[in-house]
Amino acid sequence: MIQFLHVTKTYEDNWKALCDVTLRINQGEFVFLTGHSGAGKSTLLKLIYMDERPDEFHGGEVMVQFNKDLVFDTKTATEKQVQELRRHMGIVFQDFKLLPDRNVFENVALALRITGTPEKQLNSRVFDALALVGISQKRLAMPYTLSGGEQQRVAIARAMVHNPYLILADEPTGNLDPENANEVFRIFKEINARGTTVLMATHNPDFYMNSPFRRLTLSHGVLQNRDIL
Ligand code: ADP
């Protein structure tokens, strides 16, 4: 569960990127985040992975609760807890952010290596993640040899290799042609159907029109929905 309570975020130059945002996203939901460029979508996502914190002055807070033992709050989270929070979520960006000097397998395996996962378990987890996005046959390829759609699928595999409770996706199809964009959207729906919460910032109305999923819309930092808490 993700909860924002009266969150305002002002950047150093006094620019208010979010203004009194209150919302709740339940575990297992698929939620779209929409709004014009500069509306505050990336800022909202950064507050969830605690790369940014709400203005203290305004007293707002963001809480992320995966289960009774995994509860994180921007008011109290230490750097160590932020690392722990991020171990239970996956983040996918518009520009993929793959390591150019590692092959597909190693890009996906890296996070598991850092946490000291035994080799056998690591192999099976990486293979499962690559299979989920349909890219197992490219496991030895270097990122620069892959198409944009393939690179994004590797990035999704990397985000999923931990079996996260939550996936945050910031314009994940922004650099893709319609066919690849649809494939990436299909993968996110499948990930959600398996139980992972997905919050996806997007400009693409083809995804959210006629979709059963909830849509949160920001306009100049103000949430346009009356969210039920
Ligand atoms: P979106 O993702 O909807 O395009 P952002 O959250 O990236 O919106 O940005 C919201 C507003 O905050 C924009 O006006 C942007 O210029 C500003 N902003 C974002 N990051 C920073 C920053 N680090 N410092 C100052 N202003 C920022």
From TrEMBL:
GO molecular function, one term: transmembrane transporter activity
Pfam families in alphabetical order: ABC_tran
Topology with respect to the bilayer: Peripheral membrane protein
Keywords: ATP-binding, Cell cycle, Cell division, Cell membrane, Membrane, Nucleotide-binding
Claim: ATP-binding is one of the keywords in the record: yes
A GO CC annotation given for this chain: plasma membrane
Protein family per UniProt: Belongs to the ABC transporter superfamily.
Biological role: Part of the ABC transporter FtsEX involved in cellular division. Important for assembly or stability of the septal ring.
Record-given protein name: Cell division ATP-binding protein FtsE
Organism whose genome encodes this protein: Hallerella succinigenes
Gene it is expressed from: ftsE
